[in-house]
Amino acid sequence: MDLSAINPFLLLCAILVSATPLLFAAVGELVVEKSGVLNLGVEGMMITGAICGFAISVNTGSPWMGLLAAAGGGAVLSLLFALLTQVAMANQVASGLSLTLFGLGLSALIGQGYQGIKPPEFPTFGVVVAEATAERAALVARLDILVFAAIALTAAVWAFLKYSRAGLILRAVGESHDAAHALGYKVVRIRVLAILFGGACAGLGGAYISLIRVPQWTEGMTAGIGWIALALVVFANWKPWRALLGAWLFGGVNVLQLNLQAAGVDIPAEYLGMAPYVITIIALVIMSSDRSGAPASIGRPFHASS
Amino acid sequence: MKLMKLLATAAMALGLATTAMAEGHGEKTKVGFVYVGPVGDGGWTYEHNQGRLAVEEHFGDKVETVFVESVPEGPDAERVMTQMALEGADLIFTTSFGYMDPTINVAAKFPEVKFEHATGYKTAPNVSTYSARFYEGRAVQGHIAGHMTKSNIVGYIGSYPIPEVIRGINSAYIHAKKVNPDVEFKIIWAFTWFDPAKEADAAKTLIEQGADVILQHTDSTAPQAAAQAAGNVITFGQASDMAEYAPMPRVSSIIDNWAPYYITRTQAVMDGTWETKMTWDGIGPGMVGIGEITNAVPADVKEEALALKAALADGSYHPFTGPLKKQDGSDWLAEGETADDGTLAGMNFLVEGIEGTIPE
């Protein structure tokens, strides 16, 4: 075992990168749920964003256009969910689940012909952690702008919900849509906007995986991150900063287990492999003992006549 | 009610029609392929699919091929194989180690259908196995890796702890150690054949811990991309040439060439001469190819590597030649002794000098 091989700063950077897609999706879903809508289609919107971003950036040669397309793709898919649940008054749980299945299938269809292709390189910047020595090259951590954008988004959502008038209205809609309606707020319109925002965020999270973290396209490459994001929102008690903590924890254990394996720590690899899921869930369950953040109207359909 | 009846009649008529058609095309040999990844993985499954296309090209109208990609190793595989057999496949290639028991199970139910399972060790009257001696290619990789590493740390992304993967690690290590006594291997078990995100993370972690050579036994090109982003790291194409990452980071590759085997076996089914066999071919017969060694490798190293390849091909050198000890220090092979196929097929130990353990 040689733990000295693990550089703490490099580890930290790897954790930030690993947590970013999860954070995007979780913060987006948090806003959706705060407006009183439960969208279980996060995984489907993420994977759709991943392929839309990938396809567009390959075709245009611009990673930025790809990000834009990813947000657009996620939002368009979530619009389908909005139509089903807000206009056609369909069951939110069933609609969300089918959105995930639909997204996985749709992305596989769009992705035909994009397998094994290299996307245009996303600009990253290197932070030199340790200078080069005789035995080894310099240690360089690679970060990108989206890592910080995700944290900024978390801060923005927190401030929006806590301090802005629009945030208050959004929360009011989520707490009691009847009261909000009686006050003259457009419940359906607000919820549709929240759903679109959530879709765009999930799409960005997906594109982060296909354009920056891997970068490559393969079917089902989000591999369940969307579900982790959903769980994160609940366990974070609908509070943005706690979602950030949860994302770092998941990313952290995930990266750490790989580092421990490579350093030859004598723990069976199977246990290390399941550690991110187990530890994140345990930590968040402990954190979520107070349920004050849950929107009272979550998952309940609203119609102006009722 | 009337509509239901109509639909039922239509469905039945359609069913009869397809059966009739199937019978009409009886003289065509139908060959099925079950793949563990997508055909566009750029690695393992891609090469199997190239083999399938070669079969189609070789036999033209006389053959019909079907394939199902991304089939999980488990009950799903059994379902897919059963479906293929029911649809009239005469020969089914199941192309991943984890399909071993499903293949045996399904084969027992369809004694008329021939099955060929890749990289396994269980046979039946209608089940053959075939595999390639990838460890011969690993010897060449290890040789280059030992010369090329400056940090003396070689990262290895293992998939599952099965004999095929363990053979590869041992073979690469032995030959890296031979040219560079200070070399050290760091191994991450990914527990997947194909998961680009996981493979990318594993490669990045190894690079961060100082590895400047990455060997992979997983099928995607994600580790290649990670190495390219890192700069001074070299990799080797796995299962397929992965030439899109040449000349750096990919400096060479192991290429699986299944086409001749697939054509021979399909021909055997057509001629009625098919019988159970355990095929295990290496560089010599051409089942394992070594991709072009790029100019990133110094000329003298390249020359040595090619000499090693030639010795492996003509059989004058065996990658597991004594004296070799197991990881725990016990004797394995005496001076000049070579490993027998039985030991290699069931290899479940690392050789002396490698740190870390094989997951149970």
Any chance you could write out the topology, listing elements then pairs?
The complex is a heterodimer of chains A (306) and B (360).
Chain A: H1 8-34, H2 42-60, H3 63-87, H4 92-110, E1 125-130, E2 139-143, H5 145-163, H6 165-175, H7 177-182, H8 187-213, H9 225-235, H10 240-262, H11 269-287
Antiparallel strand pairs in A: 1-2
Helix pairs in contact in A: 1-5, 1-8, 1-9, 1-10, 2-3, 2-4, 2-8, 2-9, 3-4, 3-8, 5-6, 9-10, 9-11, 10-11
Chain B: H1 2-24, E1 29-34, H2 44-59, E2 63-68, H3 75-86, E3 91-94, H4 100-109, E4 114-118, E5 127-132, H5 134-148, E6 153-158, H6 163-179, E7 184-189, H7 196-208, E8 213-216, H8 222-230, E9 234-237, E10 250-256, H9 259-271, E11 278-281, E12 288-291, H10 299-313, E13 324-325, E14 331-333, H11 341-345
Parallel strand pairs in B: 1-2, 1-3, 3-4, 4-5, 5-11, 6-7, 6-8, 8-9, 9-10
Antiparallel strand pairs in B: 10-12, 13-14
In short:
Chain A has 306 residues and is mainly α. Helices cover 67% and strands 4% of the residues of chain A.
User: Can you count the beta strands of chain B?
Assistant: 14
| SS elements, strand count of chain A | 2
Q: Largest sheet of chain A at a glance?
A: 2 strands, antiparallel
Report the portion of residues of chain A in β strands.
under 5%
Number of domains of chain A: 1
Overall number of domains of chain B: 2
Quick check: average pLDDT of chain A? 89
Assigned CATH class of chain A: Mainly Alpha
Largest sheet of chain B: 6 strands, parallel
Largest interface: A-B, 40 and 45 residues
Describe the structure.
The complex is a heterodimer of chains A (306) and B (360). Chain A has a single domain, classed as ABC transporter involved in vitamin B12 uptake, BtuC, CATH 1.10.3470. In chain A, 67% of the residues lie in helices and 4% in strands. Chain A has eleven helices and two strands; from the N terminus they run H-H-H-H-E-E-H-H-H-H-H-H-H. In chain A, strands 1-2 form a two-stranded antiparallel sheet. In chain A, helix 1 packs parallel to helix 5, helix 9 (225-235) packs across helix 10 and helix 9 (225-235) runs parallel beside helix 11. The longest helix of chain A has 27 residues, at 8-34. With 360 residues, chain B is α/β, with parallel strands linked by helices. Chain B has two domains: 28-132 and 258-281, Response regulator (Rossmann fold), CATH 3.40.50.2300; 134-256 and 288-345, Rossmann fold (3-Layer(aba) Sandwich). Chain B contains eleven helices and 14 strands. Chain B has helices at residues 2-24, 44-59, 75-86, 100-109, 134-148, 163-179, 196-208, 222-230, 259-271, 299-313, 341-345; strands at residues 29-34, 63-68, 91-94, 114-118, 127-132, 153-158, 184-189, 213-216, 234-237, 250-256, 278-281, 288-291, 324-325, 331-333. In chain B, strand 3 (91-94), helix 4 and strand 4 form a beta-alpha-beta unit. In chain B, helix 7 packs parallel to helix 8 (222-230). Classes of the chains: A mainly alpha (306), B alpha/beta (360).
